[in-house]
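Batch manifest line 250
LIGAND: phosphoenolpyruvate
JOB: complex structure
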Amino acid sequence: MRQPLVAGNWKLNGSLGAISELLSGIGEQLSAVKVAELAICPPFIYLGHVQRLIGKSGISLGAQDCSDQDSGAYTGEVAATMIKEFGCKYIIVGHSERRHIYAESNDRVAKKYEQVKNSQLVPILCVGETLRDREDGRTEVIIAQQLDAVLGRIGIDGFVDAVIAYEPVWAIGTGETATPEHAQKVHEYIRNKLAAISKDIAANIRILYGGSMKPENAKQLLEQNDIDGGLIGGAALKAKDFIGIALAAN
Ligand code: PEP
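JOB STATUS: finished
ARTIFACT:
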């Protein structure tokens, strides 16, 4: 049984005050969430602040990225082991904004993924095609390359207790959502690809959908067989919307 995970990626948003307000709004509605696990991924600098505020609420904490190195002369980087010290459970790797704005290659994403696993944290590996890829009929090819980079580096066992997020780049922050049918088809492809190597690992891995998910479309998406939750951007910045998505899993 895969517990749905609704993870909020706050990206480059927030301030000490705004975060306190957002978390108090989430806290007020938390008791209505019966099924989904909630996770919040704030900017690095606020991890300690969020850790204190969420306390023992049961909300999980995550980071949005990590270094592909564990220590040394890498100015500006943050290691997975450091993130772990702040009570994090999850680290997002390979978000499309990292891949496209900061030119992170599949290989670099795989190295980051390995750092997360080496720190005994749970990677949320983002995969997804651009609009161009989709129009060229290359969705599966692109996703296969993104998965193969990780498989090639640490093998199928690296997917035990991991999370994958399918995020079509054309749906992120655009208001456009993949139809539940399109999303399900790609999620099924991802699960089948892993199942060809290990049925057990594929059956247990949680595959989230990300891309303009909101309370209005969450139910239909979460009803699909292979959609096990959501990675939420914009809607995670509003307590009512974030909780509204989680309630769709009740
Ligand atoms: C994301 O960036 O992971 C995301 C899904 O963003 P949004 O929900 O804003 O499309």
